[in-house]
Amino acid sequence: MDYIDYYKILGVNKNATADEIKKAYRKLARKHHPDLNPNNAEAGKLFQQINEANEVLGDPESRTKYDQYGKDWKHAEQFEQAKKQQRSSGAYQQGNPFNGSDNSFGGGEYFSGDDGDYSDFFSSMFGNRGGSRQAKFKGQDFRASVQLTLTEAYKTQKQTFTVNGKNIRITVPAGIENGQEIKLAGHGAPGANGGPNGDLYITFEITNNTAFTRKGNDLYANVPLDLYKSLLGGEEIIDTLAGKVKMPVAPETQNGTKVRLKGKGFPVYKKEGEFGDLYVTYQIKIPTGLTAKEKELVEQLSKERKTTEHGNSK
Q: Which residues on neighbouring strands pair with residue 245, listed in sequence order?
């Protein structure tokens, strides 16, 4: 196997502390995680090298062997054993016997055969020790948007989503706000190295399909009011999202008069039975297309009004 500079892969120098190695590994692992680079084969390969570099340099024992024997660090124990044998026989030579092309030591064959893949070797040599040092990463979060009309948001809704091949059915409480975001924990992408799943974030987009203006839990509406009813008083039928209601109109109601219909506004989110208020602003309608008779009556009314005001001023 060719020599791999694990220090270079992690972007640290050979004197880096254990904390510096850990920080460098976490930063690079997040950046090159396959979940964040789904269509990048090179990122997946680099992610594997980053993990291997961390397993070697993150363990003090394997790091010492790597620093001393380089690409042959994995044969350190055999080398140490060979040195002992050579010392006992008086034939020990200084240096690394595995640097020679014939893999020989003191003329006698010591090790032969294919080194094999690093990952396979590491697993067989260290078992699960290396894997247990891999950092756990939370899976990628998913995001989705749901469009509702204002009349739909007025009532509790059932919504179904398909995520990772699974159907997720949720209840959307009445009173949800435009732009409001809810989180479904654990319904995102799977985590890495045993980490938790990501989350699913759903943003609601509310389209106003009514004549009302919504401000929080309150609704506002402009209601046209007949001139004669505004003068003489009476009753007016008011539309609400819950249906029609009958409201008394006081005599001599002025244009722009605002009245409140308590509890006829929008539902309060996640508070069953609680509602905001509906504020109605009356807009007086001036009759058009008057007949000659109507104009005559209006003129009489105008004269009568002037006489009354003149008398009251005396």
A: 238
State the amino acid at position 240 in one-letter form.
Answer: T
Nearest to 60 by CA among 96, 19, 98, 95: 19
Cα atoms found within 13 Å of the Cα of residue 127, Cβ hemisphere only: 1
Question: What is this structure's pTM?
Answer: 0.56
Q: Which two tokens stand for residue 312?
A: 């009251």
Helix (H) or strand (E) run with residue 292 in it: helix 292-313
Residue 291 φ/ψ, nearest 5 degrees: -80, 170
Element spanning 169, H or E: strand 166-172
pLDDT interval class at 44 (50, 70, 90): confident
**What sign for the dihedral angle of Cα 10, 14, 16, 18?**
positive
Mean pLDDT of 176-192: 91
* Structural domains present in the chain: 6-133 (1.10.287.110), 142-207 (2.60.260.20), 213-308 (2.60.260.20)
